[in-house]
């Protein structure tokens, strides 16, 4: 099937308290691995690429590869811009055929962030593409962005309500204790904060930096409006680990059709694990 918008699949997840897995993809191998994992569980999935990945791979290649994988897939697949760094980057993705975009103005002053996001929403909604935006400061490393722990800032619920109302975004990424990249210790998610924000904004919430977050914490967040959960670091770590193991154990190999297979299969297993986790529904006190 053709690439789908994230709007419908996220709204269903939001309504029924589960989440869609959104996985960072950089090449055909990872796209096929993610699609295989999603197909095995009959679950929709989101391919996401950062501006850095777009610069590396080329937006036309990304769009063509994602479209081909989606057309051969039995499950819905969306193509999403993660952490869009400018209006120009968003427009590039819209022209290329992305079916979902994020504009990240979280480093801007509040009012400037709103102005940027509103401009993006106007352009994206004109072509029926949903928009995700962020408020607060999520720590860690994502693409070319690096935020020290001391500089993280949790999202203010009052500002979150105003931000979502003024921008008319389709999904909202708050800072509530997660971080991009690998965690130095177990993350402590602020569930009271995310519950308050969810009640105030009334739209799907996105969890960034989910690689390494304990399963119970991820599942608990689903009852508070979290409907999209982003994974990237764990996929990259496992891919290169399995690739390195194969090359060490087979030093004379020179055939990518062989050494990419175990790496791709390892990513598929992680994707299956994460999607299964997001589909599980539990009741917490």
Structure characteristics:
single chain; 285 residues; alpha/beta; TIM Barrel; eight-stranded parallel sheet; three-stranded mixed sheet; 11 helices; 11 strands
Q: What layout of secondary structure does this protein have?
A:
Layout lengths: L5 H11 L3 E5 L3 H13 L4 E5 L1 H7 L1 H14 L4 E8 L2 H10 L3 E4 L6 H16 L5 E5 L3 E4 L2 E3 L9 H11 L3 E4 L4 E2 L10 H11 L3 E3 L7 H7 L4 E6 L1 H17 L6 H24 L6
Parallel strand pairs: 1-2, 1-11, 2-3, 3-4, 4-5, 5-8, 6-9, 10-11
Antiparallel strand pairs: 6-7
The name of the CATH superfamily reads: Aldolase class I
- The helicity comes to 40-55%
Name the CATH architecture. Answer: Alpha-Beta Barrel
Q: How many domains make up the 3D coordinates?
A: 1
Mean pLDDT: 91
Task: Label the overall shape.
Answer: globular
Task: Give the uncertain stretches in residue-range form.
Answer: 146-151
Main sheet specs: 8 strands, parallel
The gyration radius over C-alpha positions equals 18 Å
Number of strands: 11
What structural class results from the helix and strand content?
A: alpha/beta
Strand content: 15-25%
| Number of separate helices | 11
- Under CATH at level 1, the class stands as Alpha Beta
CATH fold assignment: TIM Barrel
- Main-sheet strand order equals 8-5-4-3-2-1-11-10
Could you spell the SSE succession in H and E letters? HEHEHHEHEHEEEHEEHEHEHH
